[in-house]
């Protein structure tokens, strides 16, 4: 038999889900974006939150984890992502930058910007490795290299250097 929770139990799930969502968001933002690759921060949070909510209800019995509580948590996460993305699409660039972050310039006119590199928690060797995977051997070949908010590296070569 399905255990139907009361309003307080449903509100408990909603508020705990919102709290853990923003806590996880903050932790991932503090850690940095270099491992995110093509996923946005919200995509990563969605995968983690949904995986957790779905996993618990699949593993534990109804007595330990109510399916209604899991549905409530999943719905709350999906609606939060939808609401946040809806707001971002209709607000200022400043708000969007606050939530998603901004690109960090790592190399400008062939010169490494060490202070910016430190902000990314990436070593010079890691950056060189990423550049080599894009057929760039020297910083001097680049007009601009920046770490995008989604974790990808954008490279603009100087005009006198040909891409191999």
Automatic annotation (TrEMBL):
A GO CC annotation given for this chain: plasma membrane
Keyword Cell membrane belongs to the record: yes
Keywords from the named record: Cell membrane, Membrane, Transmembrane, Transmembrane helix
One of the Pfam families matching this protein, by short name: DUF421
InterPro entries: DUF421, UPF0702_alpha/beta_dom_sf
Top-rank taxon: Bacteria
Subcellular location: Cell membrane
Transmembrane parts of this sequence: 13-30, 42-61, 67-88
Domain YetF C-terminal: 92-161
Gene3D superfamilies registered for this protein in UniProt: bsu07140 like domains
Membrane topology: Multi-pass membrane protein
Main subcellular location of this protein, as a coarse class: membrane
Family the entry assigns: Belongs to the UPF0702 family.
Name of the protein: DUF421 domain-containing protein
Species of origin: Candidatus Mcinerneyibacterium aminivorans
């Amino acid at each position: 038999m399905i255990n139907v929770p009361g309003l307080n139990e449903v509100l408990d799930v909603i508020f705990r889900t919102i709290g853990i969502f923003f806590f996880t968001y903050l932790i991932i933002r503090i850690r940095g974006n270099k491992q995110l690759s093509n996923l946005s921060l919200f995509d990563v949070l969605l995968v983690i939150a949904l995986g957790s909510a779905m996993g618990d209800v699949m593993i534990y019995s109804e007595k330990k984890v109510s399916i209604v509580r899991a549905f409530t948590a999943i719905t709350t996460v999906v609606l939060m992502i939808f609401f946040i993305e809806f707001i971002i699409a209709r607000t200022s660039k400043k708000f969007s930058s606050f939530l998603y972050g901004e690109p960090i310039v790592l190399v400008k006119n062939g010169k490494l910007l060490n202070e910016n590199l430190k902000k990314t928690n990436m070593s010079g060797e890691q950056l060189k490795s990423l550049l080599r995977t894009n057929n760039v051997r020297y910083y001097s070949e680049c007009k601009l290299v920046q770490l995008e908010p989604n974790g990808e590296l954008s490279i603009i070569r100087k005009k006198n250097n040909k891409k191999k």
